[in-house]
Amino acid sequence: MLGSIGLGSLRFRLPALFLLGIVFAGVIAALISIRFFQGYTRARAVDELRSEGVGIVSLYATQAGRENVPVKKLQAAIGGDHIFYIPIVKGAQLFAGDLDPLPRDTVDVKQLERSGPQTTTFEHKGKSYLAVARPVTLGNQLFGAMVVAKPRSQLHSRLVTLVQRLAIAFGGGLIIAGLLGVYLTRRIVRPLGALSAAADEIAGGDYAVDLPPTRGKDEISTLSRSFADMAAKLAESEALSRNFLMSVSHELRTPLTAIRGHVSAVREGVIDDPDLRAASLRVIEEEAMRLERLVGDVLDLAKLDAHRFTVLQEEVDMERLCERAFTTFGEEARRRAIDYRSDIRAHPVILTDGDRVLQIISNLLSNAFRWTPEGGRISLELGAENGTVSVAVNDTGPGISAEERERIFRPFWSRDGGGTGLGLAIARELANALGGRIEVRSQPGLGSRFELSLPAN
């Protein structure tokens, strides 16, 4: 479950990965910062030593020729740094004071004479120094070198201070990142936990699940909305299935009851009159055909849904096919006093499955007769234009609202709860299988127009 706090749960893994990424990024940033600071500190220290060296040599030059060079004055000029000297000319003494001399090999004498100031490092009395040596000349004669140096431990202490501050900042950032990771994880895990619980309820057959409202546009909100839509469609599908079972049961029971009654009457000799017996047999035949149509509709829909439907290719005279479909409903139109007309404006012959086209037109006409009141008007139109053959069925029924125009093509859905709701669903699926389409134009109270369009070629 998403709610548990195991090592494999999102509630643990997301903050852990988040913190691991922060730690990795922090360590890399700290190493880069330390490396940069080391280079920067050393470069700055060398610049300071070079600048101090210029002042020391200039001050020494002004004191040259005196018996004692004021060492304390030189030391005061450079603050806390150290001064050393390197004698180069034998017998020449630069200082009579207490400055410490350094060995001649501390610097490259030739480079010092040729290029001037030189950066170096050396050990003196157990301490390590970073230094800049400047040549001391009297006239054109190189007498020695003045060395201004900083203890390297001083630079190291600055680095330690930086590392300590980085560690404090890193620890504080890690705490803040951890709290933020926990907060974000809860924001992610809670809706996922709700979705998981809702999925369990749906798996148990309860489609009326309550999901927390979503206002954002992130992936979790999108998933939650999609899940809610899925639950609603599953609930609608289950309701349609129940309605289908009830409708099919009723549709099957009615003809079966009629067949059983007439068969019993004929078998038991209740009907002696030959005319009445023939009428009973006609009723049995009609009800059996009704059952056959119902079972055929269910099988056709199952084949279409499973994409196991075979479409034949044959030349079809659309005028004769429309006349055949039109004639089928002629008696019902006369009996109900419906103004029933046929308008043939073209005589196309197309390559398609004639039986399925006839089934589509018959379903559209059957739907029109079901909803058109007695004394109404129904028309069947055939036309061809721009490479498309169109068959339209117009009626003066109650019309269809915009909200219901898509629902009427759903299997097992019926506006009044009667019938199986398969006619229009099968008609549209067949039209799609034949490369055509069915369009609806309707307004409540003004009737409807169903138009089948098929490619002429």
Helix/strand layout:
Blueprint: H1 10-63, H2 71-77, E1 82-87, E2 100-101, H3 109-115, E3 118-124, E4 127-138, E5 141-151, H4 152-203, H5 219-267, H6 274-305, E6 314-317, H7 318-328, H8 330-335, E7 339-344, E8 349-352, H9 354-371, E9 377-385, E10 388-395, H10 423-433, E11 437-442, E12 448-455
Parallel strand pairs: 1-2, 7-9
Antiparallel strand pairs: 1-5, 3-4, 4-5, 6-8, 9-10, 10-12, 11-12
Helix pairs in contact: 1-4, 4-5, 5-6, 6-10, 7-9, 9-10
3D structure, described in words:
There is one protein chain. With 457 residues, the protein is of the alpha+beta class. It has 3 domains: 13-157, Beta-Lactamase; 219-302, Signal transduction histidine kinase, dimerisation/phosphotransfer (DHp) domain (Helix Hairpins, Orthogonal Bundle); 314-455, 2-Layer Sandwich (Heat Shock Protein 90). It is built from 10 helices and 12 strands. The protein has helices at 10-63, 71-77, 109-115, 152-203, 219-267, 274-305, 318-328, 330-335, 354-371, 423-433; strands at 82-87, 100-101, 118-124, 127-138, 141-151, 314-317, 339-344, 349-352, 377-385, 388-395, 437-442, 448-455. Strands 2-1-5-4-3 form a 5-stranded mixed beta sheet. Strand 9 and strand 10 form a beta hairpin. Helix 5 (219-267) runs antiparallel to helix 6 (274-305) and helix 6 packs across helix 10 (423-433). The radius of gyration is 50 Å and the shape is rod-shaped. It starts with 9 loop residues before the first helix and ends with a strand.
Shape: rod-shaped
Order of helices and strands: HHEEHEEEHHHEHHEEHEEHEE
Give the radius of gyration. 50 Å
**CATH overall fold name of the largest domain:** Beta-Lactamase
Return the domain count. Answer: 3
- Strand fraction equals 15-25%
CATH architecture of the largest domain: 2-Layer Sandwich
- Give the tally of β-strands: 12
Intertermini distance? 58 Å
- Average pLDDT, to the nearest integer? 79
CATH class of the largest domain: Alpha Beta
* Range of helix content: 40-55%
Largest sheet: 5 strands, mixed
